[in-house]
Amino acid sequence: MKNLSNLLTTINVTLSDLLLDPNNPRFSELGEELNPIPEGRFLDIKVQANTFDKMRDPLFDVAELRDTIKTIGFLPMDRIVVRKWKGNSEEVPLKYVVIEGNRRVTALKWLINLHDIGKETFDDEKLENLTRIECLLLDDSAVTTTATLILPGLRHVSGVKQWGAYQKAKAVHALRKSGMTPQEAAQSLGLSTRAANSAYKCFLALEQMKIDEEYGEYAEPKMYSYFEEVFKRSNLRNWLGWSDESERFTEEEKLTEFYSWMAPQSEDDPIPKLPESKSVRDLSQIIGDENALNILRGSEGSLTRALARYEVDHPEDWYPKVVAATSAIKSLTPDILRSMDENTIKSLEELVARINQALNDRKLLIN
Predict the structure, then answer these.
(1) Strands 80-84 and 96-100
(2) Residue 164 lies in a domain
């Protein structure tokens, strides 16, 4: 790819000529599947209104940004990046699609809306500041999936208002499929190669779930974190048969079973056997034990019951838990210690008492 800085030109644009991107990668954070809206529909009033409403979700912190701009004005130190809308014609005034800066443009449009309905009142100078925007225009020759991911990615994968894990992974996947090496994709987004490779595999795993005939409907972006936990644990990766060569899990029966634990058990019992991604950590503990797994597989089975059975059968597995508890206690910061409630303090005191009892019992046994 050419040096992107040579393909960006400074232009002045009126706020009303800036189109929010209705296919913004951020929207998958809202739990919805991204269905690309055709370029020709970007100018539709309802499409822009819907995009504006989604951008104002509290998840994106646009209200805070709006209030900051209201107080100090819009400071174009970090300029908005745009491209020409492909639907421009002689009948339609020149419009630009926001590549990087959708939060800032939403905040600006929000302030102007408030002014128009009388809830805010800005003088002419302030209105000029809010509506005449100096932007960077990306050359038409550089408007590719690669460029339009790198530009926002440099800010949001490792910088300002970070993208969620799924958005990072989707960007890595798109860049690699565009021809970039794993190292180039990682560097383009400010990630380590290791982190980018892990994100790439997790994205592929979720995509594999999407095409499953029985459980594909449950493969939402929020399920991405389940596969993050899988790839952190070699025994689960191996159990599901991950193959770097084919870039997929190969143990089909076990994979279907894993999907079933992630999905609602039934209409009457909508709680999955693995109700959250961190449940995968407990699953990794029992995955090699058929007795515990059979309990989980049962119609009345649960992860809690399976773990209880495993602990009965493997009383020698206490040491890793002690190590984990020690690590957790070491991580307690002064702020956490100061904010502890009575129940937490009571749990720590009980832990101290049990440790002292165990040490005293040991002394009696060896003396």
Answers:
(1) antiparallel
(2) no
Task: Measure CA 154 to chain center.
Answer: 16
Q: Are residues 312 and 253 in the same domain?
A: yes
Distance separating alpha carbons of residues 75 and 68, to the nearest angstrom:
10
pLDDT in tens, 86-97: 888 777 678 999
Cβ(142)–Cβ(4) below 8 Å: yes
d(CA 187, CA 363): 56
E-state strands within the chain: 8-14, 18-19, 80-84, 96-100, 132-138, 242-243, 248-249
Look at the chain and report how many structural domains it folds into: 3
Q: Are residues 276 and 347 in the same domain?
A: no
Domain hosting 358: range is 340-366
φ/ψ of residue 135, rounded to 5: -120, 170
CA 24 – CA 164 distance, rounded (Å): 13
* Size of the chain, expressed as the number of residues it contains: 367
What's the whole-model pTM score?
Answer: 0.56
Residue 165 located in a structural domain: no
Q: pLDDT digit string (tens) for 282-333?
A: 999 899 889 999 999 988 889 999 988 888 777 666 666 776 788 788 888 8
Residue 171 inside a domain? The answer is no
- 21 and 72 co-located in one domain: yes
